[in-house]
Amino acid sequence: MKKKVLLKDIAQHVGVSTALVSYVLNNQKEGRINKETADRIRKAAQELNYQPNQLAKGLKTQKSLTIGLIVADISNPFSSHIARIIEDEAKKSGYTVIFGSSDENAEKMQDLINLLLNRQVEGLIIAAAENTEDQVQSLLKVGIPFVLIDRYFPGITTNYVAIDNFAAGYKATKHLFDNGYSRIGLVTYKTELFHLQERANGYKRFIESIHGTPLIEEVSVENVKEDVEKAVSRLLSQPQPVEAIFFVTNMLTIHGIKHINNLGIKVPNELAVVGFDETDAFDLFYAPITHVRQPMEELGKLSIRTLLDIIHNNTPVKTVNLDTELIIRTSSKAFAL
Amino acid sequence: MKKKVLLKDIAQHVGVSTALVSYVLNNQKEGRINKETADRIRKAAQELNYQPNQLAKGLKTQKSLTIGLIVADISNPFSSHIARIIEDEAKKSGYTVIFGSSDENAEKMQDLINLLLNRQVEGLIIAAAENTEDQVQSLLKVGIPFVLIDRYFPGITTNYVAIDNFAAGYKATKHLFDNGYSRIGLVTYKTELFHLQERANGYKRFIESIHGTPLIEEVSVENVKEDVEKAVSRLLSQPQPVEAIFFVTNMLTIHGIKHINNLGIKVPNELAVVGFDETDAFDLFYAPITHVRQPMEELGKLSIRTLLDIIHNNTPVKTVNLDTELIIRTSSKAFAL
DNA sequence: ACAATCAATTTAATCGATTAAACAAGCTTT
DNA sequence: AAAGCTTGTTTAATCGATTAAATTGATTGT
Q1: Neighbours of B85 (CB within 10 A)
Q2: DSSP state of B66
Q3: Based on the structure, what is the number of domains in chain B?
Q4: A-chain residue closest to B80, CA distance
Q5: Rounded to whole angstroms, what are the CA distances from B274 to A41, B213, B289?
Q6: How do residues A259-299 score in pLDDT, each as one tens digit?
Q7: Residues B158, B170: one domain?
């Protein structure tokens, strides 16, 4: 591999010290540098196609211009969508993003945090995995700038950008009820994750408000597909089968409707469905899926902007719960009267 | 922010030089170091939770343990799936991946390359954007280890991992014909990208082999949705409308079937469809979509393994064209006889 | 008893930048 | 003409690690 062009090479080429080259290329000491010398330096840098070594620069300046993003799984469309928004927004401020997938696993998440900190990221955006309060607490103690996204812990006072999960759950359930479905089941993960519990709580609150019985099925993260299938089947094989199901994440929704489809059950006539998040799959289903849409752009942009704010100005704690929108399609259509 | 624990801190804590600490923590000079001293150093490192500064380490050792991945758009499921596989495989060898999205734009891709090289990545995996031969050539000249993935340039001898696009195109078209569809249209991007041309070439070759007329619609990258809609409509409003359409990428397929659906056209009875890549949307469509499946795991793993091979052993050029699988579903079902 | 060997550790240079402080030469000012 | 500014540039320390080479003190061989 050809050797890289260094500051020293430019200095030699022009016949000045590396210090001067550095000053010129960083536009420092404006006015104190001979215009003509400066031009020669800039020209040489251009010609030699000088690219500063960011490791060296970062080491000296203590600024890596890098932030870390930890998601559950970068191949999940929710994660990759957010990742893309954050990438773009970070770039606007000259920052690069390093991603990592935690697989909803606390240990992997800790490894990722260490890895990112070793790489001297200036801050983190984290979609925290289950049971990672301790890790978040210890980040707080260390004082690394970070912002939680999507998930957060009610017991920890820290920056986060998320949605109003309770309202989303309530709204989705109410919508089904208003459209004539009264026995409504819910499929969620068996999890301590607060944001998912809140979606379920919103559901429960509404069901209670109409004096109904909550019917909640919890599935494992490890075995989503099979578990969702069982969950759906159980909800349908009750003495009084459910008339509608609310799935609280994109994956649950997808596996759910695939199974419903395989069972030959007609949506919404035999069973209404409300899903969460957006995916093309929801549109292409013969009965397009009513779903809770999260404001992705806002989530992403707000999280990175908050993070950069903290990094640069050490602003006070900021917590955001954005509103969601219920996109009403066919899968929850009211009974024809 | 609490100050980080340095090698120096451990040295001071134990009462030895930083050199010794470094040797111990890197398991160097095995046997030449007093076992008891070594233990004390390791214990101190543990207690103080020492995390080496990778910028400093990388600067000195000239190894960043980082590789760069350039995709068209990380939020595209194809890209994010590949990214995830590469992330996992890289981690196994102690490497971290930095991603960037080029948006199919040559200039952005060049910026990304520079950015990644500044960050001293040891190598690159690139899904090259259109018209970036020059960039690839110049990477070759500079001698940076890199592997092209998904896309490659017939005129450039370099490492790449891709599929046999021609065969995929041929196979998909033949399948439609064998199932009784003879007027078959194709929707692709208006592009110089060789891999997409090859998919179209495979299509053309087959159509010619049956003495048919190729019906190719090209859409722009910038305006996919509208253009696909127009393309589909044009294919259907021919004097003799097409009986089947082959879409050569996942996005084209999704937009295509959405539109076909909106037009109220029944698949496959009124129009058969074959798509490319996999997405949940294909399964959930009322007539599950027959599609070309790319071997994602192999693509991802092979690309990173090849790259690491080059980095470490400077192996000779390796080009790979993997076979694809045609997943036959309902959307291309033979006419009932 | 003296050189040679060995084990254990330290010294100091280095990676490629940045930057405070020093310096040189010309110009003012009194 | 001495002292003080300006302007333009260089010197040298530094960031936090790694690592070749030097050093120290003990041990061994002859």
Answers
A1: 20
A2: E
A3: 3
A4: A75
A5: 57, 18, 6
A6: 999 999 999 999 999 999 999 999 999 999 999 999 999 99
A7: no
